[in-house]
Amino acid sequence: MANSIITITNMKKQYPEGKGKFTALDDINLSINSGEFTGIVGPSGSGKTTLLNIIGSLDVPTEGEVITLGESIGKLTHRKAAKLRNKNIGFIFQTYNLLPVYSVYENVEFPLLLLKMSASKRKKAVLDALEWLGLTDKIKSRPGQLSGGECQRVAVARAMVKLPEIVLADEPTANLDAENAHNILKMMSKLNKELNTTFLFSTHDEKVIQYLTRQILLKDGKVVG
Amino acid sequence: MLSIKLAFRNLIGAGLRTWLNVIVLSFSFVIIIWNKGVLNGWNEQARHDMVEWQIGGGQYWQENYDPYDMFTINESHSAIPQEFKNDIANNEMTPILINTGTIYPDGRMQNVILNGIMPNQKVLKIPTEKLENNSNEISVLIGKRMAKNNKLEVGDYFPIRWRDANETFDASDAKVVGIFNSNVPVIDQGKIWISLQQLQKMLVTPNEATMLITKNVDRKNAEVDGWIFRDHKFLLSDMDEIIRMKNVGGSIFYLILLALALLAIFDTQVLSIFRRQKEIGTEIALGMTRWQVVRLFTVEGAMYSIFAAVLAAIYGIPLLALQAKNGFPMPEAADSYGLPIAKAIYPTYSLGLIFGTVFVIFIATLIVSYLPAKKISKINPTDAIKGKIQ
Asked: What string of H, E and C letters represents the secondary structure of A39-64?
């Protein structure tokens, strides 16, 4: 437990549904160590994305405790949660979620602007990230001009540019063909090894599963393995 | 600074949507400033013309004089006070004697106001030197409107009838010795200008006057028994009231224009927040606080007014400068309203007007941008990331 960066204890997440409540996650107990390349694996509706959102401080648990990088998610103010995400957590989404009116460079630069990094450091970090992901020739392109694989590489660059401690990737290969999926996963695996960044995926994609060093099986909101 | 930088990127990136709003808002800037400039220009020109042609630096009125009461006007004259003699001799002041009369040009009858004025006066711009006359005939000066209405030309004779101080009617032929062109209809329509001495002789009121017009605004005006001093504030009050009414009318017009432009921005903001939910969710996930996103959208909206001000400056400055140089032509019938309106009004644009307009529009834009943007603070980021409409 010494280098555990995510600890979940007796966590439950419920949503209002009609007059009652729908339990999305129940009795979750987990610990994820620094540098892991872990996947939360399960079918659609099993609660993978909800778990990822809570770990990433975008949502809060109904019961129990989630500690991410030493911060209790349920007790964070909006401002502190935003700061945690901004400094320490990178997000990768299934639908890339690139800002449509920004260029590739501007999309990758965005988290660094929020960190108030100096212009020279920012430029170096963005160009380095784009180089890792092989996007240097697409700097001025807009997301609309890129393929799905390229968009997801931009999203990875955006998540990695600030060198976060954790990257949360929600179904990152769901919209990609096999070749692009493998390319992306190889890059993420390489970054995990070189930078010791913790990657946490939510997925039911076999292609992703074969890259994982640890799998957490989720079914009907419960950890089953 | 971050909000400004990101808002700038967002607006530039949004392309046509941005420029449509900016163009509409820039019209508001230019038209509001132009409208106000025309009114300012008219106000300044009208005041300037009234001072030069009608009211001078101020007026002493004989205590019974009421320009709106024709029944007492013939009794509203008395001897010119001794203390004004030097001022009159030095052309610092000029006496005017006023009486009613009737003229019969071409056999038609028209009631007129007879104004006696010294031919060598230098207080008003009326070309009274034309009234210098050594003959016994009555020489009169009239304005172009009066001449047009009565089909009179220089050299024409017409009968004139008046009632003197002894209540005796008298009549004689008068000769038009000059027609002047003034933007001030009050000294023209229904007015006949005669040499003061001539009129005093006709009315049997030697050395008397109805009013004394001073040349300078800043002269020290002593109190004189039987005479009341009327300053610019009093004499221009009707004009000020008309300008105020025009300003109110103009304000309604540009409020409608501004409202249309603001509605476009409000609509864009509402639509943006509706359509850009995924973007908002992503920005929150990347570490923006909800209030940072609210601020970003508010600054985006407010930035329309800055872009619009720049665009308005690009095409508005040359356009307004050209108008200020060449003037805004007024229709021929404009002077029949009875107001001092020149053939062309030259708009004047003060820095206060320009910066005031920019400031008001900026604040209005800021408010209409903030109102829809504050909804963002209630957005659920996990739904927003997926683009779910909330």
From this structure: EEECCCCCCHHHHHHHHCCCCCCCEE
Pairwise CB contact (< 8 Å): B283 & A58: no
pLDDT band per the 50, 70, 90 thresholds, residue A1: very low
A20-33 and A4-17 strand pairing: antiparallel
Selected residue of A101, A108, A109, A175 to mutate for chain B interface (largest B Cβ count, 10 A): A101
Check if B360 contacts A (Cβ < 8 Å).
Answer: no
Higher-pLDDT residue of B335 and A165 is A165
Same domain, yes or no: B373 and B249: yes
Q: Is B90 part of a structural domain of the chain?
A: yes
Chain B residues inside the 8 Å CB shell of A49: 382
Say if domain A36-59+78-223 classifies as CATH 3.40.50.620: no
Closest Cβ opposite residue B282 in set A97, A114, A142: A97
Residues 6+ away with beta carbon under 8 Å from B5: A113
Let me know whether B247 and B311 are in one domain.
yes
Tell me the average pLDDT across A85-103: 92
Cβ within 8 Å, pair B13-A93: no
Best residue of A104, A110, A116 to probe chain B, by most B CBs closer than 10 Å: A110
Q: Give ipTM to 2 decimals.
A: 0.91
Listed residues B180, B215, B250: the one ending a domain: B215
In chain A, where are the structural domains located? 36-59+78-223
Longest dimension (CA), chain A: 55
Residue B318 and residue B247 in one domain: yes
Q: Looking at the 3D structure of chain B, how many domains does it have?
A: 2
Answer yes or no: is pLDDT of B4 > 80: yes
Res B16 pLDDT > 80:
yes
Rounded CA-CA distance B112/B78 in Å is 21
Contact B289 A97 (CB under 8 A): no
Residue B193's domain spans which residues? 58-215
Residue B195 shares a structural domain with residue B244: no
CA distance A22 to chain B (A): 16
- Residue from B282, B294, B376 to probe the interface with A (highest A Cβ count within 10 Å): B282
Instruction: Examine residue B168 and state whether it is found in any structural domain, yes or no.
Output: yes
Encoded tokens for B26? 């820039």
Do B77 and B134 fall within a single domain?
A: yes
Angle of helix B277-285 versus helix B237-275 axis, rounded to 10:
70
For residue B285, give the nearest of A49, A50, A85 by CB distance: A85
pLDDT of B206 higher than 60: yes
- Structure tokens, B375: 């909804």
Residue-wise pLDDT tens digits, B214-253:
998 777 767 888 999 999 999 999 888 887 888 788 778 7
d(CA A91, CA A60): 17
